[in-house]
Amino acid sequence: MPPELPALSWILLLLAAALAGLAKTALPGAATIAVALCAAILPAKESTGLMLLLLMTGDLLAVRSYWHDADPVMLRRLVPSVVAGVAAGALLLQVASDSAIRRAIGVILLLLIALTLLQRHRCAAPGTPDAATGHGTASSRPARLLYGALAGLTTMVANAGGPVTSMYFLACRYPVRAFLGTTAWFFFAVNLVKLPFSIAIGLVNPTTAALAAAGAPMVVLAALAGRALADRMSQRLFEPIVIALTVLSALPLL
């Protein structure tokens, strides 16, 4: 049975679950807002474990929804740096305070947003070598190592990897379905890697599992609604929404 919580805490939990589901199938970046809501209900480490389980529920629906839309080459190339980032994040959780970690992640995310927008502006400028493809330096090996390691680190310590990958895939100029499909498969794999680390250090425990079970139906409903929304969303609308949500998701971490 889930633990007893005040009515307001249950409302925040269900809202966080809905945002987790919506983030998986339509609006990447919304998950970090859900993380902030969970942090208002539980201590930071317990909220991290709860969000991991809610997000993994959404992962299953996202992978099923975008089964054939991912970029497998990009996913394979990101694996080594992401695994290294997850391992570093697990170590960091043992030695650093929650508040210090979150502030550092917030600053990193805002810097990445500025870097990505600058890169996109340069690539879009007429006459630049990458104006036609839009990829610029985003698909280069140093960029993959940087974004992959940061995604692994931030998702391990604060479930905040979504904004990092959102900025990276925007820089790569993925269309909507390819963006959502690659993101879905990426976090499905990353969260599976995170799970044993999270169990080992106590983030996932009977309490967080019970709360996640209570919120799972809301994740499913929101994910299905998000899938319908994504089918009607144009690229012109999708990209500004992702950028705005990424900025909004970084602010609570500061």
Put the structure in a nutshell.
This protein is mainly α.
Write a structural description.
This protein is an all-alpha fold and about 250 residues long. The protein has helices spanning about 5-25, 30-40, 45-65, 70-95, 100-125, 140-160, 160-170, 175-200, 205-230, 235-250. The radius of gyration is 17 Å and the shape is globular. Belongs to the 4-toluene sulfonate uptake permease (TSUP) (TC 2.A.102) family. It is a multi-pass membrane protein. Keywords: Cell membrane, Membrane, Transmembrane, Transmembrane helix, Transport.
Give me the secondary-structure topology:
Layout: H1 7-25, H2 30-39, H3 44-65, H4 72-95, H5 98-124, H6 141-158, H7 161-171, H8 176-200, H9 206-231, H10 235-250
Distance N terminus to C terminus?
Answer: 34 Å
Order of helices and strands: HHHHHHHHHH
Radius of gyration: 17 Å
Shape: globular
Number of helices: 10
Q: Could you say which structural class the secondary elements and strand pairing correspond to? A: mainly alpha
Provide the domain count. Answer: 1
Largest sheet descriptor? none
Question: Can you give the helix content as a percent range?
Answer: over 70%
Strand portion, in percent? under 5%
Low-confidence stretches: 127-134
Annotation, overall tally of beta strands:
0
Rounded mean pLDDT score? 84
Organism: Actinomyces bowdenii
Pfam family, one: TauE
Family: Belongs to the 4-toluene sulfonate uptake permease (TSUP) (TC 2.A.102) family.
Subcellular location: Cell membrane
